[in-house]
Amino acid sequence: MASPMSASRFLTRLRAEGATVVEVGDWEHHNRNHKGPWGPVHGVMIHHTVTKGSEHTVELCRRGYASLPGPLCHGVITKDGTVHLVGYGRANHAGPGDDDVLRAVIAEKALPPDNEANTDGNRHFYGFECENLGNGKDPWPDEQLDAIERVAAAICRHHGWTERSVIGHLEWQPGKVDPRGFTMASMRQRIRDRLK
Predict the structure, then answer these.
(1) Residue 1: inside a domain, yes or no?
(2) Which residues does UniProt assign to the signal peptide (predicted)?
(3) How far, CA to CA in Å, does 173 sit from each of 9, 12, 68, 163?
(4) Stated pTM of the model
(5) Cα–Cα nearest to 117, from 97, 88, 142, 101
(6) What's the domain range around 149?
(7) 98: domain CATH number?
(8) What pLDDT, in 10s, does the model give residues 130-149?
(9) Could you give the number of structural domains in the chain?
């Protein structure tokens, strides 16, 4: 069980891990906390955006849209590997997911199949949206994969978590496919190597 780190500590940790970070507006206070608690936090969730164009992607993730207000994550990782911080606190990114998956993340064990959507994920996960069309063909540049690895490792390092605390949206909520184009197993191996 872990309390979310402060916004300033979050920024410091990301930069200490070597991530290139851009602060977008009043990101430290942009959240959905009025809809429910944020924390305890148990892991990091990775998504793809199904968008093209960095400026558009960052703005969409910051503002959201009519049926799903922003922020839609804590950070947007664009194709060039830049991490754009758009919110901090509760964010509309994880949605409801499987309580068995959450228990496995907390225990840092192998993930079971996600076959339920009965648990509030927005409360328990840091979230990163990654600019990608999500069609399995849009490439994932090395700079972008490196940034995903760095931000996840930075958060795991702070909380004393292993790579097993990093999951994809597809491992949390039935019917989700993101991130598509690389495997979470390969990303967890990268994070594991970085944390050594």
Answers:
(1) no
(2) none
(3) 29, 30, 17, 19
(4) 0.98
(5) 97
(6) 7-195
(7) 3.40.80.10
(8) 999 999 999 999 999 999 99
(9) 1
